[in-house]
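Whether sequence alone determines local backbone shape is best considered at the level of individual chains. For completeness, the protein is quoted in full, as a sequence line and a line of structure tokens:
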Amino acid sequence: MTKYFLYLFTILLFLSQGAYCQYKTVVKGTIKDIESGQSLEYVNIRVDGTTIGTSSDLEGKFEIIVNAEKDIKLIITRVGYKAYNYTIKSFTRGEVQLNVQLVTSSSPLEVVITEERMEKNGQIRQNVDDLKLLPTVSGNLESLLPSIALGTSSGTGGELSSQYNVRGGNYDENLIYVNDFEIFRPQLIRSSQQEGLSFPNIDLTRDLSFSSGGFQSKYGDKLSSVLDIRYKRPEKTKASVSASFLGASAHIEGSEKLGKDNYKKFRYLIGARYKTSQYILNSLEITGEYVPSFVDLQSFMTYDISRSLQLGVILNYNRSKYFFVPDSRTSGAGLVNFALQLSTAYEGQEIDNFEEYMGGISLTWLPDRKKNPYFIKLLASANRDYEDETYDILGYYQLAQIETNLGSDKAGEVVAVLGDGTQHDFARNHLQSTIKNIEIRGGYEIKNYHENPKLSSNHFIEWSVKAQSEDIKDKINEWERIDSAGYSLKYDPEALYLSYVLKSQNQLNSLRYTSFIQNTYTLKRDSVSEWQFNLGLRASYWDLNNEFLIGPRAQLQFRPLNWSHDWAFRLSGGYYYQPAFYRELRRPDGTVNTDLLAQKSIHIVGGISKELYWTKISSKPFHLIAELYYKKLWDLVSYEVDNVRIRYSGENDATGYLTGLDLRLNGEFVPGAESWINISLLQAREKLNGVQHKVREAGQAEGTDVEYVPRPTDQLLTVNVFFQDYLPRRENFKVHFNLAVGTGLPFGLKDNNTVYRNTYRYNPYHRVDIGFSLLLWDKKWKERKPHHILRFSENTWLTLEVFNLLNVLNTASNTWIKTVFNTQYAIPNRLTSRRLDLKFRVDF
């Protein structure tokens, strides 16, 4: 473990270096035409009395850093528009967001500027532009979350998986939204090798926000986290194309005016992705023929019917095909003085097919009102999955002990055969799910009047009512036969037994009803303080088990504006519950428990954030976040994890708790290149109802009684670092460094993981990925390179990625081998080794 603590020590030492704080404010904003709503480029923003200034880009965006210790006057000008002076009050350090609406010189209207300084309670917000070149094996946006989000890890799926654990929760406890549409994932996937492309398309994404717990009532009924993704609202035609050894992608976006009115615009986003992980999978220990093929087609379109009414349509087709013919495997395990070798020859094949169709429509009514504005939004969507998992694989194995004495003549040779037999796995599993929902939601803002001009406040009330139908058809037929030394296990001289059999056929039809109401109250006293308090109530009813649930949630955020340092404080919590989906309902024997209650928890999350200025490193601020949390859990459905497959007990048979500390620091350690450092400490514990758990210490014959044991997601320490740099005076050559370190996750004996539960741990996970990106063309070079071969593009990148730079073989799961005497040995299933990838990306 020494090297892992060295990793942590190095990072903590770096964080502890003294920072010379200068009180600054980062002013960001977007500038638009007040009548047409179009983004305005080349708008000049200058700090009065100084030489500090900038101009807006093609999307109307700008950013400028000003001194926070005194009032700052911004002068905003553009040819053909009215000039305007805007004052940033002193002691508003941190980040100020300005929404500027300019008017033409001949217009009778006045310039409108609104200012925002409060973040969403407890949510990390991130623009995705900095993430598009980040090296990732899976190619999915979710794979980047451990680098940017609090308390997030990829679990046992490792680098191949787009699934993620958040603060001791499992893969099924995370909410994902895209433009307010909830996204669902396949149910049958059992290994990260089978995973294809997830729903979110980074080429279509504008930004994302992420909450690791204690989130608002407007978000749904899960126990762990919320990923809220917003797709772009394009104003002009753009496109991109990228290709690598792992696949390709392309997208096009644009905006077309329909009719005489400027506001009647049709906006479109269309993306296509193809992924093949064959090159990566060929580095696994099991040799054979891997033929994975993953395709995703997606579009998001909007049309402004009137100034107040907008129509939106989202469409998605996703197909994952996984074909595998194994050949052989040689794996090693054990200690220095006791080494094991598993040698296997295979017959048979695996063919998996996952297809998903999703369509959604939204209608948003947002009338133009200066006083008490409101909106009403209608959403309807349908999601249909077809999942087929078929395999028939016969493995002839030999488990042997290897001579480890280097001085022996037989060093490295087999000295004893511990197991010799056959493992036969068979499955014909088919699942079809159809999920349809309709929702109406709204919001109403109440602006309060105050005689004191320095005091302002408002209420923003949001509400929703949603109905969802679920139709599940599931047919399971899988079994396992183990033959050791000519005897089938379990051994019986009178009969032939299979070691595992699961056959069932289930069909469920149910309706869910959910609703919420919440009020966000914001109170701002210029140059003194800023408060935001959110109080909400969420309710649900499921006709399958007739369970009605109602739970309050609250978030409080306070930002002092007159302190000598820039701080923000957050406190959130409430009652959270997670009604079961089909997978939680299904017991290990294949029967369905329709009386299963929702899993429940109480969240308490406290956090602080601070803007830091290290002027020797960067003129832009660094953002430090620290959050401490505690979650009490009951009515839990216990489970075990095998790679990315979760096997639930189908019963409310456990209670537990989660507690931990998350730290994140992000900023430009190198000017113009954003970097992130995440450190998390976690303790996840549970106890099975009616079971006295025991822990056996080294040398003990009998175990010691304990009240709580580790949950399958218990991971004491995780460290994720993403760092960007470029060559001096050569900013077109960037380096992307990604480090992930995590202590080992727990597991228990197969078929005997109750009393002595999760007493073993996988080896710690550690991995380094690095990418070298060369900017081959930038449109800014057009004047000095007018005949460049790539002048047709906006920018073009060539990236060399090195995955698993240190060639560390991390563990995803175990293969359990039994002898005829019923002794079990766990042989690790390794993840990928070192691989190179070359990626070419063109933006138009």
User: Anything to note?
Assistant: The chain has a mean pLDDT of 86. The first strand starts at residue 24 and ends at 33. The helical segments are 2-15, 145-148, 278-281, 582-585. The radius of gyration is 29 Å.
